[in-house]
TrEMBL record:
Sites annotated Participates in the substrate recognition with KAPA and in a stacking interaction with the adenine ring of SAM: 20
CDD domains: OAT_like
Family (UniProt): Belongs to the class-III pyridoxal-phosphate-dependent aminotransferase family. BioA subfamily.
Residues given in the record as pyridoxal 5'-phosphate binding sites: 115-116, 249, 312-313
Localization, UniProt: Cytoplasm
Protein's gene: bioA
EC number(s) per entry: 2.6.1.62
Pathway it works in: Cofactor biosynthesis; biotin biosynthesis; 7,8-diaminononanoate from 8-amino-7-oxononanoate (SAM route): step 1/1
Reactions catalysed, as given in the entry: (8S)-8-amino-7-oxononanoate + S-adenosyl-L-methionine = S-adenosyl-4-methylsulfanyl-2-oxobutanoate + (7R,8S)-7,8-diammoniononanoate
InterPro entries from the UniProt entry: Aminotrans_3 (IPR005814), Aminotrans_3_PPA_site (IPR049704), BioA (IPR005815), PyrdxlP-dep_Trfase (IPR015424), PyrdxlP-dep_Trfase_major (IPR015421), PyrdxlP-dep_Trfase_small (IPR015422)
Organism: Pseudoalteromonas prydzensis
Subunit relationships: Homodimer.
Protein name as it appears in the record: Adenosylmethionine-8-amino-7-oxononanoate aminotransferase
Gene Ontology terms, MF aspect: adenosylmethionine-8-amino-7-oxononanoate transaminase activity
Length: 429
């Protein structure tokens, strides 16, 4: 018997803490009754075109029958079992798929719960690797300004220390080495002075640096910065030259979002450690993975501890692994590159926003579209307008952006783009 729940908005306001929201002056929340394809159905009757893919994860849209069937079949067998001392087919099959589709040197897979946790695992891997080699001086990380890697403490410590949402934790977080953010844009000429500045940082700090962590090609929550592949190539070269590990955080960019299956492919490089999450399960449930090389895994395993010191309770959750397998198959077996090209063509509708004086820049890459304004946006005000236009878009800072499900039609993207243009032109922000 299905239990029917009601949405008590008064209780929600008084007791439920939503992400990045005040408990004394909370942002409005809109009650959702159900979702389907790329539509969000509100309990109040409105039907919204989703421009966010649930924070970039629901690449196939909602309620896809392939993913639903995978979940139904698995839940009848086993929804969860501890991964310590046990294993199961969904986890083995998922790791086979991940090893097959990621850069060839990445042969070892650690499954975790969320994006932030897989970054924590990556940082632990890097630090523990050097300790296992008897090198105790490499205890810091290096990373570009404007980066974002998650909300847990180690992940926060490598987010932008000044302009990020985590700057108030300064003094509590480990202090790392921050290099200038990439400046040369994806489609422009690479400024060799950026390579020179990076070289100077590596030369000065490498003896104390365990790893360089970076979001490949797109700095996401730090400002939607689409940077030149040569920057990433330079980082890879310097990491190799100065004996520093390279961690690539593909939690947001993985599984086709930038036009490549993984964004590192734009620069034709391989990291030492790779973080993936978000779209891993097609947005059905939380799961992440940290992949690394034989060298690092064996190095840690032959060290004093003998093991990687991490083990989440829900590690390798069978239900999540089964859905992730289905999501990867669904993506790979269809012409996902044509989907991304189609979406990128449709996202050019955002270029009309360049006519507006409040707009600093419009930029697109793969299935990402960004409109940058000259002032910080009032999220509550602009979202109320977007609801009235039957679209779901959640801006942050000075950015209004789209990362829609891959199944979105050209007509849907046009409606999203028109809503953004009208919001800016009508100053609904």
């Amino acid at each position: 018997m299905n239990k029917k729940y009601t949405i008590d908005l008064d209780f929600d306001r008084q007791h439920i803490w939503h992400p990045y929201t005040s408990m004394t002056q909370p942002l409005p929340v809109y009650p959702v009754s159900h979702t389907q394809d790329n539509r969000i159905f509100l309990a109040t009757g409105e039907v919204l075109i989703d421009g966010m893919a649930s924070w970039w994860s629901a690449i196939h849209g909602y309620g896809h029958p392939v993913l639903k069937n995978a979940a139904i079949e698995q839940v009848d067998k086993m929804s969860h079992v501890m991964f310590g001392g046990l294993t199961h087919a969904p986890a083995v099959e998922l790791c086979k798929k991940l090893v097959a589709i990621t850069p060839s040197k990445l042969q070892k897979v650690f499954l975790a719960d969320s994006g932030s946790v897989c970054v924590e695992v990556a940082i632990k891997m890097a630090l523990q690797y050097w300790l296992s080699q008897g090198i105790t001086s490499k205890q810091k990380l290096m990373t570009p300004l404007k980066g974002y890697h998650g909300d847990t403490f180690a992940a926060m410590s490598v987010c932008d220390p000044i302009n990020s949402m985590h700057s108030l934790y300064q003094g509590f977080l480990p202090e790392h080495v921050f290099v200038p953010a990439p400046v040369s844009q994806f489609s422009q000429t690479f400024d060799q002075q950026e390579a020179q500045r990076l070289t100077e940082y590596f030369a000065q700090h490498h003896q104390h640096i365990a790893a360089f962590i970076i979001e490949p090609i797109v700095q996401n929550a730090g400002g939607m910065n689409f940077y030149h592949p040569e920057y990433l190539k330079t980082v890879r070269k310097l990491c190799t030259e100065y004996d520093v590990l390279l961690i690539c955080d593909e939690i947001a960019t993985g599984f086709g979002r930038t036009g490549k299956l993984f964004a590192v492919e734009h620069a034709d490089i391989e990291p030492d450690i790779l973080c993936i999450g978000k779209a891993l399960t097609g947005g059905m449930m939380t799961l992440s993975a940290t992949l690394t090389t034989d060298k690092i895994a064996i190095g840690i395993s032959e060290g004093e501890a003998g093991v990687l010191m991490h083990g989440p309770t829900f590690m390798g959750n069978p239900l999540a692994c089964a859905v992730a397998c289905a999501s990867i198959d669904l993506l790979i077996e269809q012409d996902w590159q044509a989907q991304i090209t189609h979406l990128n063509d449709a996202l050019q509708a955002l270029q009309r926003c360049s006519e507006l004086e409040q707009v600093v820049e419009v930029r697109t890459l793969g299935a990402i579209g960004v409109v940058e304004l000259d002032t910080v946006i009032d999220v509550a005000k602009i979202q109320a307008f977007f609801i009235s236009q039957h679209v779901w878009i959640r801006p942050f800072g000075k950015l209004i952006y789209l990362m829609p499900p891959y199944i979105s039609s050209e007509e849907d993207i046009t409606m999203l783009a028109n809503a953004i243009y009208d919001a800016i032109a009508g100053k609904h922000y």
